Amino acid sequence: MKKQNPKNASSKQNPAKALRKLQKRLGSQVSVDEDSCFRASLDNLRLSSLPTAVVHVQEPQDVRIVLKLANKHGVPVTTRGAGTSATGSAVPIQGGWVLDLSRLNQIEIDPIARIATVGAGVVTADLQAEVEALGLFFPPDPSSKKYSTIGGNIACNAGGMRCVKYGVTRDYVLGLAGFLADGSPFQFGLPLKKYVSGLNLRDLLIGSEGTLGVITSANLKLISKPEKRWTGMFAFKSEAAALKAVVGLFKAGVSPSILEFLDRQSVGCAEAYTGKPIFAGQPRSAILLVELDGIPVEVRAQRKRLLDYMLATAAAHREARSELQAEKLWQVRRTCSQSMFSIADTKLNEDVVVPIEKQAELIRYTIALKKKIGLSTPTFGHAGDGNLHVHIMYNRASESDAEKAKAGIQQLMQKVVELGGVITGEHGIGLAKAPFMSLQHSAPEIAAMRAVKKALDPLGILNPGKIFEPFEVWDHDLVDVKLPWDHR
Amino acid sequence: MKKQNPKNASSKQNPAKALRKLQKRLGSQVSVDEDSCFRASLDNLRLSSLPTAVVHVQEPQDVRIVLKLANKHGVPVTTRGAGTSATGSAVPIQGGWVLDLSRLNQIEIDPIARIATVGAGVVTADLQAEVEALGLFFPPDPSSKKYSTIGGNIACNAGGMRCVKYGVTRDYVLGLAGFLADGSPFQFGLPLKKYVSGLNLRDLLIGSEGTLGVITSANLKLISKPEKRWTGMFAFKSEAAALKAVVGLFKAGVSPSILEFLDRQSVGCAEAYTGKPIFAGQPRSAILLVELDGIPVEVRAQRKRLLDYMLATAAAHREARSELQAEKLWQVRRTCSQSMFSIADTKLNEDVVVPIEKQAELIRYTIALKKKIGLSTPTFGHAGDGNLHVHIMYNRASESDAEKAKAGIQQLMQKVVELGGVITGEHGIGLAKAPFMSLQHSAPEIAAMRAVKKALDPLGILNPGKIFEPFEVWDHDLVDVKLPWDHR
């Protein structure tokens, strides 16, 4: 892969000298060995681009040192948490230095104000465990939460399954501290519930994938932990029937905390993998998984409302009577995801969103697409938000498969935008979705975004090559590597 | 007042020619008469600066026409809803043209997806009425809601009383449509619950007070209307006791939908005005007003928890047994606000925020400040958020009063920032708070904000002179005018 230098910084470029200075300032916190550089070269997209050094940040001020030097010498800087990003947003695609923030893992909780102040490297699930021990709740739950860091969640505005009731990561961020591209410290927002002073750069940074600044800590809003949960699973003869029920549930006044959909292709994969149907006598059903939460009386009332509607429309159903049974129902969802690799060795996971009422039309399209391109298109996801993960499965070694997959993704994205949807609901753009930016946004909209990027990072040193630059993942080899979250 | 032309556009400046072109394009939608220009010259700050024309926008495309001409001829453009802003953010301080969006008042509601799509000119209370008729709820409730427009609410990220439970305007905005400074149309975000494509300019525009773009419509998130409400009022011997109870209620697990505080100065004003104590036998108490809402069983459980705590700490209490009684309790809050004008003819209303646990310290300071400057400092506000309205009352004709008030505000703002707070929680910066920007934000933070402003509005035509420019309201005469929301 050709490495490009940041455009405006080439005159000052002297990478070897810059590295020597960096090592002089930060000593053993700077790794340049092959193994460290390889580990920092990729994320869950599995596209590797080696940095020249990895800086293991011990305290926020280290970031300032790195950015000052990077500015002076025109070195690209890519910030990294756990590397769970699905789009290559954590890949140092133009080389340079990687800022590894995973050691910034302090957690402080104010249970009265209900605010947590956490380092960017705190693992999402660790925060959730600490918070829940105090009877509080931090709802954002990306599927990578056992590994992903809060900094990464904020950089990508991570979602998850609970967004239908509780919203996304952005909805829980009150303040951000960190460093601007030139190394100046910033605090945008504070641990306060109301704040309208000046332009809101806090929310501009959220979801900017490390292209506008480096976030070292965050003040997060916490809420009450739901007292009770209920989980149920429902089978439908068709995707259309299941997705009609999603709309019907909202009409009936049900407010689920989770509302997940699995299409028949996904269910078929899981059933082939485990060797038995999920609903006995109802193989290859489309499935809805529903969680309700709240105070017990509210959960009971919601359950009644839900069952009144569902028992008239679903082909079969199952309720969890215990935590263990609930866990078994959720296992179905996880098995679907893993079992898809029985179809082919590579999974393209597109996190598109369409209006809730248009989901049935999207699924008709994915089924038609399967026939058209001859590749499986199993789809599941967060039907309560209209946020469906459409997968295209293909074998990496087959050039013809890859061409079909590439064409399929392009057509899918066009369809999503036609339906009034968005090309990404929770993964972000990174490298993988850069080709579709112009489908979603007009030229003046993109020009406005680029102008903002240039205003905050005039030398283009922060995560260069992402979001706006032309990139085709297809032109690059992906690496075959086992990452901590791989269970296949 | 001297009018300044936007700095970068002076070479192209020909205001008379520009106005002729504007009139040719938009005909009778352009008003240049004295009366129209005066009405568009001020907001609730009551500082008047005349525009040369007011454009009554009939459809969004009119905005494009205005901005194209304004760019070509370097004319300042200030966007306006109802003009309820408390900070001068709607005042055309550098003259030019005012865009009046009040006719963009369409409302469309999708009750299944729970999304409203509304014109920028929709009056907040009108939207709330339509939404509540469908059993839905749009919580943001600035005190000006009977007059304020959604566009203005978004431009200032308006708050209100319900934020302690439901958050601020920003939390309900999914998508924004409008025009960039150069007249290009934009759609940032969509009527979808998840959206992470590209840089988030939607939230950058929210709260930017019309300095970055012109918002013509918004997609707003709706929630379920609470089934039941309960209101209670509690008297305390001192501010310290009342504000200790605020912390105590949170510790006790109470989740109020409203939690308002009135200090003894405010209560004293109301009691002098009505001629009787709010709590018989307990004159000049500090007061907490609490609303609970939700499903009936939840409200009952919360009420019990609240009363268990309050009856042990409050000096007296009163519960509303009906809607009418609740309205009477809220009347107390409103009377406090109006009755302050019995102290002096001018009210400085500072919407500061401090951490919840620091509110008692802030009130100790406002009482000390009263003694120090010899002006009343009645304070009430949203104690559940730490968002207190500190007022300094003075007589406009008295130069010495004005000097004391000016010094008092400066000291108050310093104290707020020392306490870890913010100089504005729901009003924004506008003109009135511009002198305090450097108390709140570091020079690099302000430079970053200004760089973003310049990136999106390189000619500086959008609401010039606001947020970042040095300005002292004290150097300008305020006008004595009755505005629609004046009830004194």
TrEMBL record, chains A, B:
<dbReference type="InterPro" id="IPR006094">
    <property type="entry name" value="Oxid_FAD_bind_N"/>
</dbReference>
<dbReference type="InterPro" id="IPR004113">
    <property type="entry name" value="FAD-bd_oxidored_4_C"/>
</dbReference>
<protein>
    <submittedName>
        <fullName>FAD-linked oxidase C-terminal domain-containing protein</fullName>
    </submittedName>
</protein>
<dbReference type="InterPro" id="IPR016164">
    <property type="entry name" value="FAD-linked_Oxase-like_C"/>
</dbReference>
<dbReference type="InterPro" id="IPR016166">
    <property type="entry name" value="FAD-bd_PCMH"/>
</dbReference>
<dbReference type="InterPro" id="IPR036318">
    <property type="entry name" value="FAD-bd_PCMH-like_sf"/>
</dbReference>
<feature type="domain" description="FAD-binding PCMH-type">
    <location>
        <begin position="47"/>
        <end position="225"/>
    </location>
</feature>
<dbReference type="Pfam" id="PF01565">
    <property type="entry name" value="FAD_binding_4"/>
</dbReference>
<keyword id="KW-0560">Oxidoreductase</keyword>
<dbReference type="InterPro" id="IPR051914">
    <property type="entry name" value="FAD-linked_OxidoTrans_Type4"/>
</dbReference>
<dbReference type="InterPro" id="IPR016169">
    <property type="entry name" value="FAD-bd_PCMH_sub2"/>
</dbReference>
<keyword id="KW-0274">FAD</keyword>
<dbReference type="InterPro" id="IPR016171">
    <property type="entry name" value="Vanillyl_alc_oxidase_C-sub2"/>
</dbReference>
<dbReference type="Pfam" id="PF02913">
    <property type="entry name" value="FAD-oxidase_C"/>
</dbReference>
<keyword id="KW-0285">Flavoprotein</keyword>
